[in-house]
Amino acid sequence: MSQGKDTMTSASALRVLAVDDNSSLLRFLVSAFTASGCAVTAAPTAEEALDRIETDAFDLVVSDIKMPGLSGLDLLRAVKAKQPATPVVLITGAPSVNSAVFGLRHGAYDYLPKPFSIKEVQGMVERVRADRAKWNGQTPLPSGLAEELHRREAGVEMLLRIGDLALQGLDPQAFMEQTLRLATESLKNDGGLLLLRDEHGHFTSAQTGAPAVVSELLGLLQLGFDRVVATGGREAVALTRPGHRLDVVAAAIPGVDRCMGVVCLARLSVNGGFLPDERDMLLGFAQTTAVALQKLVLRESLERHLVDTITAFVNAIESKDPYLKGHSARVALYAVEIASRMGLDDETVQIVSRGAMLHDLGKLSIMDTILRKPDRLTDEEFAIIKAHPVVGERILKPLTFLHRESCAVRSHHERFDGTGYPDGLKGEDIPLVARIVTVADVFDAVTSNRPYRTALPVEAAREEIARGRGTHFDPQVADAFASIPLERLVEITRHYESLVSAPLRTGEGELARAS
Question: Does residue 505 belong to any structural domain of this protein?
Answer without folding.
Answer: yes
